[in-house]
Amino acid sequence: ERGLYPLISSLPQALNGFVLVVTSEGLIFYSSHTIQDYLGFHQVDVMHQSVFELIHTEDQPEFRRNLHWALDPPLAPEGEPCAAAGKSLGSSAVIYKPDQLPTENSSFLERSFVCRFRCLLDNSSGFLALNLQGRLKFLHGQNKRSEDGSALPPQLALFAISTPLQPPSILQIRTKNMIFRTKHKLDFTPLACDAKGKIVLGYTEAELRMCGTGYQFVHAADTLYCAENHVRMMKTGESGLTVFRLLTKENRWKWVQANARLVYKNGKPEYIVVTQRPLVDEEGGEHLRKRSMHLPFTFATGEALLYQSAHPLPGFPDPFQGKGKPSKSKKPSCRHGGCSQKNGADARSLLGAVTRQDRALY
């Protein structure tokens, strides 16, 4: 068994897709970690969630149909719309006894169908068409009980390999190993970073979460540009491609091309997922020359309140003016209670993020 484990654990990486196990209720029982490479969702964020939250509304009936052993699920309750039924975990679940179902090796339980899944990656239009191929099998070890307390027999679940309907292009294959993803709160405070991002930026997740919002890692000249796209994302759900500089742990600026998307749970924004591709300095400089230089905030619409700037508007000070010599520290100055507030700026504001950066970085 020990000899087989490395082979089994590396199998999802060898596939052009990811493994998905969905219960008859529509609950994602398991997903391989490679789901992040295709849909942008982290494995932990989708497991034990309703699969219908990820599926295009028009494709939910097809997925629900394939969860039923006879491809004939019960109809939604009268007056309940189909889409709402898809999000109700128990709406299509029927408890069966094993002797009521065909044997596991029956061809009736084989499945092959196409559904559009929500995709957070910047190379899609919001959804990715996946071909799900597998079969219904009994899911053992659940230890579920009925209302009267009696033990329920194992029920069928869909075990499938999900692969993109359209094979990836040569360019996507070449750039796949360079792309990294980060997870943020709605104000852009970093929450998590994948393994590739830790290599590119050099930080651990604890260091990324150490102080304030994520804007303390953004170059001062790119801050308002990023904030403008942040506001757009909060309104539309997606930031669009954004090219800016991130501060690495080695105190160097790294150009990245990023696309941020809101992730919703129960109809409300829950967090932000950002897909980022490193750029060489020449590419970043070209984007900088093309960027329209205008102030995105009018300070009359209330948008600036998103960043909780406590500094008076008249006469913004030079962020780097100070009494005495510049700090020799190569890291942003953070204390145990958070980051210090300089020049009266709220530590969570855009201005506060810039004032915390060491002048030597520029």
Automatic annotation (TrEMBL):
Annotated stretches, region: Disordered: 316-346
| Gene Ontology terms, MF aspect | nuclear receptor activity; transcription cis-regulatory region binding
Q: Which GO terms describe its cellular component?
A: aryl hydrocarbon receptor complex; nucleus
Keyword Calcium included in the entry's annotation: no
Segments forming domain PAS? 4-74
For this chain's UniProt record, which GO biological process terms are given? xenobiotic metabolic process
List where in the cell it is found: Nucleus
- Biased composition regions of type Basic residues, renumbered to the chain: 325-334
The record ties this protein, via Pfam families, to: PAS, PAS_3
- Keywords annotated in UniProt: Activator, DNA-binding, Nucleus, Transcription, Transcription regulation
Alphabetized PANTHER family for the sequence: ARYL HYDROCARBON RECEPTOR (PTHR10649), ARYL HYDROCARBON RECEPTOR 1 BETA (PTHR10649:SF18)
Q: What is this protein called?
A: AHR protein
